[in-house]
Amino acid sequence: MIIGGSASQALASQVAKELDDKLCSVETKKFPDGERYFRIKDEIPEDERVIVVQSTGYPQDENMMELFFILDTLSDMNIKDVIVVSPYLGYSRQERRFKEVECISAKATAKLIQTMGVKRLISINLHEESICDLYDIPVDNLSAMPAIAQHIQNTFDVKPVILAPDKGAINFAKEIATQLDTDYDYLEKVRLSPEVVETKTKNISVKDRNVVIIDDIISTGGTIVNAIEILKDQGAVDVDVFCVHPVLVNDAVLKINAAGAHSVQGTNTLKSDVSFISVAKTIANHLNSI
User: Fold this and answer.
1) 69 and 35 in contact (C-beta within 8 Å)?
2) 119 contacts 81 by C-beta, under 8 angstroms
3) Please, are residues 103 and 57 in contact by the beta-carbon 8 Å criterion?
4) Active-site residue, selected from the candidate residues 22, 30, 111, 189
5) Per-residue pLDDT tens over the stretch 241-283
6) Is 29 an active-site residue?
7) Are 105 and 233 found together in one domain?
8) Predicted TM-score of the model (pTM)
9) Residue 245 within any structural domain of the chain
């Protein structure tokens, strides 16, 4: 049985179709004062494995609270085998303490999720792998890169260079490039003098080549805008931008397009105007394997 929260109902439907499983009928709404309401409308046998699909991105508090409502309702129904699929796990960008006595939000949410009787948590491209260590239950950190690579293969006529905007994202570029059998690189800052820093591709030339920029999260778009401008200066032809989690704060897409992006595309871990790539098969294949 698949249950989709408000943030991921379309994705939940896709996962149910991939698994040939039933999508549970639910009722959810928001009251005038902003509080949420949730009800499960179908009967669920106590021995049923229930998969709850709910991303907890913006508005994080609202989506996280609805997840807790779903889990508490399942507990009241005496459902014991509950798996949470949160493709984008909110509050995961602070997994350690940077200042004294500040909340480690990823740890706090881990505690809350585990108290709700969850047997397993599945997410996609967590901001840090170490987030898994905050949980006492199994946490599966899946990769959306194969799905993105397949989408590129299906829609691009010429193999592009896969580029990470910084060294921290190089493994994403490598994973996609390996599947596509193409080149990959990252942008590196080189200090030419005490006053001058040049940013350029580390190993290969992008002159007269199409480039795909890949990152896990695009939020404000500032890093991507800078990367596009550098690549255009270095002679790149088309620059397409891909990400796993299209957070896209304010006018991020507008800024990226204005910088010269040929396209901006993300997966449907989050709902957005650019969520063109489905991770349903990635999730379903993993669920079938456990």
Assistant:
1) no
2) yes
3) no
4) 189
5) 999 999 999 999 999 999 999 999 999 999 999 999 999 999 9
6) no
7) no
8) 0.93
9) yes
